[in-house]
Amino acid sequence: MSKLIYYVAATMDGYIATEDHGLGWLEAFTLGDDATPYDEFYQGIGAAIMGAGTYEWIMKNTSGDWPYQDIPSFILSSRNISIPPGISAVVTHTSTNDIAAEARAAAKGKNVWMIGGGKTAASFADAGELQQLFITTIPIFLGSGIRVLPVNKPIHVTSDKRRFLRSGAIETIMDIKW
Ligand SMILES: NC(=O)c1ccc[n+]([C@@H]2O[C@H](COP(=O)([O-])OP(=O)(O)OC[C@H]3O[C@@H](n4cnc5c(N)ncnc54)[C@H](OP(=O)(O)O)[C@@H]3O)[C@@H](O)[C@H]2O)c1
């Protein structure tokens, strides 16, 4: 069955961005060629889900060059955000369970990338819709920021896939135990 995978980079103290949405700490870091290639992950993805905060960060920082053009994206927002023409994305605010079902159907047998941010990923974890986390931990502490997965209840995970990269980063693939 198609999985919802939260594939994300986080700091050692569990943040995915600074309080003011800065990702300079991540952009300045070189993962190295022993990291799992992004393309290898992306080939298994058929649809994406993200929150309004992440959508707005992408639009501000990629000069409108939508990075996920070949897959349908579902953007969660209670606001009437308008998507520029040519971007294969819809804005939705139905239940997390309905959005997960829609995204799985749109992925046509492939997995669904939960792009983030933390608030959106946590709401899907709380609703029992997240199956896997693929976290690349960058060897840096920020002290504060946007949390990687601020769930409302404990989420238990199992992991037998952890790789220590030469750069000092750590890749951890975790399955959520339901
Ligand atoms: N390090 C990484 O790999 C990585 C990956 C992804 C994102 N990020 C960063 O994370 C930051 C955004 O993360 P975030 O946690 O603040 O925001 P987010 O999860 O991207 O977006 C949260 C917003 O989505 C909307 N929303 C609607 N329904 C929701 C639901 N059921 N659950 C949660 N949100 C819902 C709300 O906006 P409305 O007011 O519009 O309803 C909410 O404020 C950005 O700075 C981004 O760059 C980093």
TrEMBL record:
Q: Can you tell me where the transmembrane regions are?
A: none
GO annotation, biological process: riboflavin biosynthetic process
Q: Name one GO molecular function term.
A: 5-amino-6-(5-phosphoribosylamino)uracil reductase activity
For this protein, the record's SUPFAM superfamilies field holds: Dihydrofolate reductase-like
Q: Where is the Bacterial bifunctional deaminase-reductase C-terminal domain?
A: 3-148
Q: State the protein's name.
A: Bacterial bifunctional deaminase-reductase C-terminal domain-containing protein
Which species? Answer: Xenorhabdus bovienii (strain SS-2004)
